[in-house]
């Protein structure tokens, strides 16, 4: 069965910024997920374009590695690329309703 963008978003809900007790999807750190069509062997490549809450985030390498590891564990995924971008910059408006509630920002 082919991996979808929704599958990847669901998997990434297991990844957290160590300084904020909210998963990176609800934080709004994920900008784009690209999934290639299945190869003849049935495998797919995944690219995740994401940002951090600030350009000086000391955990950006660790979070990127967490994303790679989590997506790599998905059945059928051959290769994972994570691209951290700074434009557009992250803002609190990207927080999901669940994240705002969890952080007490309502």
CATH superfamily: Fe-S cluster assembly (FSCA)
The end-to-end distance, rounded to whole angstroms, is 40 Å
Q: Report on the biggest sheet.
A: 3 strands, mixed
Helix proportion of residues, in percent?
Answer: 25-40%
Determine the mean pLDDT: 94
Report the β-strand fraction as a percent range. 15-25%
Number of domains: 1
What overall form do the CA principal axes indicate?
elongated
Care to describe what's here?
- With 106 residues, the chain is α+β, with helices and mostly antiparallel strands.
- It has a single domain (5-99), classed as Fe-S cluster assembly (FSCA) (GMP Synthetase, Chain A, domain 3, 2-Layer Sandwich), CATH 3.30.300.130.
- Helix content is 26%, strand content 20%.
- The protein contains three helices and three strands, in the order H-E-E-H-E-H.
- The protein has helices at residues 5-12, 60-72, 97-103, and strands at 30-35, 44-50, 77-84.
- Strands 1-2-3 form a three-stranded mixed sheet, with helices on one face.
Brief overview:
By secondary structure, the chain is an alpha+beta fold. The protein has helices at residues 5-12, 60-72, 97-103; strands at 30-35, 44-50, 77-84.
Descriptive keywords:
three-stranded mixed beta sheet; alpha+beta; 106 residues
């Amino acid at each position: 069965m082919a991996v979808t963008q929704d599958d990847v978003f669901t998997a990434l809900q297991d990844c957290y910024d160590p300084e904020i007790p909210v998963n990176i999807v609800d934080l709004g750190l994920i900008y784009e997920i690209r999934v290639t069509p299945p190869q003849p062997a049935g495998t797919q490549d995944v690219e995740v374009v994401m940002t951090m809450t600030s350009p000086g985030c000391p955990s950006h390498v660790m979070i990127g590695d967490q994303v790679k590891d989590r997506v790599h564990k998905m059945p059928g995924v051959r290769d994972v690329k994570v691209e951290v971008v700074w434009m557009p910059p992250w803002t609190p408006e990207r927080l999901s309703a669940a994240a705002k509630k969890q952080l007490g920002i309502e």
